Amino acid sequence: MISPPPPFILGIGGTTRPGSSTERALLLALAAAAAAGAETAMLGGAALQLPMYDPAVPELSEAATTLIAQVRRCQGLIIASPGYHGTISGMVKNALDYIEALRGEPAPYLEGRAVGCICCAYGWQATGTTLVAMRSVVHALRGWPTPFGAAVNSAQPVFDTDGRCLDATVAQQLALVGEQVVAFARMRQLATVDA
Q1: CA–CA separation, 23 vs 19, rounded Å?
Q2: How does DSSP assign 138-164, residue by residue?
Q3: pLDDT single digits (tens) 163-182
Q4: Residue 120 · residue 154 · CB < 8 Å
Q5: Which of 144, 178, 186 shows the shortest CA–CA distance to 4?
Q6: How far apart are CA 112 and CA 16, in angstroms?
Q7: Residue bearing the bigger pLDDT, 156 or 7
Q8: Residue 64: which residues within 8 A CB-CB, separation 6 or more?
């Protein structure tokens, strides 16, 4: 039996500020996915500054075309958003709205893909509501949220100036998100090969 290729896991998220805690959390989860044998790529805050999604405009910007091509190619995603006023940031939500371009695909939207959810917010209440909102969006896009979603309270020091995680529990949680996305993607690959 031929082994399937390493699953491709795409990370989407961050903020308009380079090196944000959200982007650092996403990088740690993607590093765990890579350590578990996946190919990974990240579309961070700079890549997500897209025009406001408008379904009446069929032409996509270059950045939106890249986003859609990467989502189409991936077997799993990790989405990381800051919690702004109790929910997903407008920038991350706008990027997810562009997935509408995949509605006519054989596997529409996020069909059959595991999606790890990470949120970073200033306070536990905002992390909880943001994580619930992210899971709801993933469900609406027909994705499979991983059993574990990471909520990072950025009111406490989490990362040092070099991006290293200062909290071993947070680091373990972010790694678990990455590992679960890879494990599910591999199970889907094997199920597809056996079908």
Answers
A1: 6
A2: HHHTT-EE-S--EEEETTS--B-TTS-
A3: 899 999 999 999 999 999 99
A4: yes
A5: 186
A6: 30
A7: 7
A8: 50, 51, 98, 101
- The letter for the amino acid at 122 is Y
> What DSSP string runs through the chain?
-PPPPPPEEEEEE--SSTT-HHHHHHHHHHHHHHHTT-EEEEE-GGGG-PPPP-TT--PPPHHHHHHHHHHHH-SEEEEEEEEETTEE-HHHHHHHHGGGGGTTSSS-TTTT-EEEEEEEESSHHHHHHHHHHHHHHHHHTT-EE-S--EEEETTS--B-TTS-BS-HHHHHHHHHHHHHHHHHHHHHHHHHHH-
* Structure-token pair, residue 125: 């209440």
Domain segments of the chain: what residues?
Answer: 8-194
Mention every residue, 6+ apart, whose C-beta is less than 8 A from residue 38.
Answer: 6, 7, 8, 9, 76, 178, 181, 182, 185
Give the CATH H-level superfamily of domain 8-194. Flavodoxin domain (3.40.50.360)
Whether 74 and 111 have beta carbons less than 8 Å apart is answered as no
Q: 64 exposed, middle or buried (CB, 10 Å; 0-12, 13-18, 19+)?
A: buried
How far lies 32's CA from each of 38, 73, 130, 150, in Å?
A: 9, 20, 23, 14
Tokens of 43: 């579309």
Given a cut of 70, whether residue 1 has pLDDT beyond it is no
